[in-house]
Amino acid sequence: MYRVLLAEDEILVRLGLKNSIDWKRFDMQVIADVANGAEAWSVYEKLEPEIVITDLKMPIMGGMELITKIRAVNPHTQLVILTCIEEFALARKAMSLGVSDYIVKHSVSTEELEQVLSKLHVELSVSSVKPPVPEADAGIMKENLLKDYLFLHRFTPEQFALKAEEMNMSLSPRHIVACAMDIDQFEQLREKFKDDKGQLIRVSLLNVLNEVIKVYGHCEAFHDNESRYILLFSSPDSISEKEIEESLLRMLGHIRKMMRTYFNVIVSFGISSKQSGFQHLKQQYKECVEAIEQSFAGGTGNNYLWTSRDDEGNSREMEERLLRLPDLWEKVSVGFQADFCDQIHHFIANRHYRTKLEAQKAFMQWLHSPVLSLRLTGEEMTALCSSYAYRLAQAKTLHAMIELYGDFVKELTGKITIRKRTSGPVTQALRFIESRHAEDISLQQVAESVSMNANYFSTLFKKEMDVNFVDYVLQFRVEKAKELFLHSNLKSYEIGERVGFVNYSHFSRVFKKYSGLSPREFRKQWGAETIEDVQHGDL
Prior knowledge:
The chain is of the alpha/beta class and 539 residues long. The protein is 57% helix and 10% strand. It has three domains: 2-126, 3-Layer(aba) Sandwich (Rossmann fold), CATH 3.40.50.2300; 138-310, Alpha-Beta Plaits (2-Layer Sandwich); 313-417, no CATH class. Helix 9 packs antiparallel against helix 10 (241-263) and helix 15 (356-373) runs parallel beside helix 17 (398-417).
């Protein structure tokens, strides 16, 4: 592949050029992107790339000086200048030095860029210049080495140290701190980039991270999972503990500012203990990941230390907010309020609010509990629960979950207020269904239990409940099934049998109809995916 060097002091322009083009399509690879002419000249002297794309006005060394130096040693390098409208006089001067083409910054389209690259490819192809065999991207090689060491245990600490040195990894074994960076609003970022696979976001974020960390030195960054990146910070110099901490916090603050400026996202950092020696890296990785989990209860946009993960300050504040949740039900049902209060106290006592998975499961249960306890089963209620369940799944913090639950109760209360009170026969029928829902009950059987004609009872039930008898029974069974999915380790087909379905396929179809998810999808979404249904599969 033909090697490309980018020199541009505006980071957004540089990242835009690097990430908006499919360079492989033109048999090209960006080997370096730098912020000034001096850095570009240093790279050029070492690697002699076939193509240099450079801005004209840059700090330390401008584009004109860079072009002049390159032309003095190599008349064949393809040169492209980045220019603004007001720099055309300077651009004309550059063209006299044998520049192949120019690109107008801030207004050039992807199609125009591709036309320039296509022209360069043709010129290089017909010349005597042959593309060198491509080397693996240094950043990818470093990331693979780190992941092989941290997660696959392929190297001893000594072997890792040797390989890190061979790759010129900017990491010292002295005073290492691991930091996990988590991105809030990641879904919005993905939509903004129109990047379903996340590759463009990953490359862009790593480019910005690397721009910042090279200012501070002795630091490496790599992508960990969808919205999380890991920074390994080290300090080989003999400086005080306070100076190390201040340098680390300056770097994290710089990164936070850059992420907000260029991507409009808020980031949180989880910070491990400080250790010397690569043998501690695996433990430090676990520590920083544990530390970042504090952002769920503590909120985004902060730094969280592994050493202070048991801080009681945030815990007390969140516990107080949780204890106020039962007050939302005061005007709806005093009995349900008391039961809900007991659930909240149990939730707090077990500290489930500290982990996202446990909190999601609890809030999901609290969405569905009133549906059964207050006899609110119906298509409208099912849709309301499903809507809030989806929003809870997207929530990244406990604060967001509490706010969502408050909105849910207000909306539900409004619907209950306009609902008529049920008559004696219908109330009696509802109790009958609740107590015998797992049996093969029929309309005739329930009508007889309230001493009414089946046709008349059916009409009365539909009028008061806004749903026909059969749909009500099926929806009630689905809600009971959800309760069992959240609170038991029973297999899906066992739960189906417990709530009155003889045939698992029928249960699966009905469950999906009223919840929007198959039994397996529901269980996976709410954290019990380790339970396998080996004898039955969802249809």
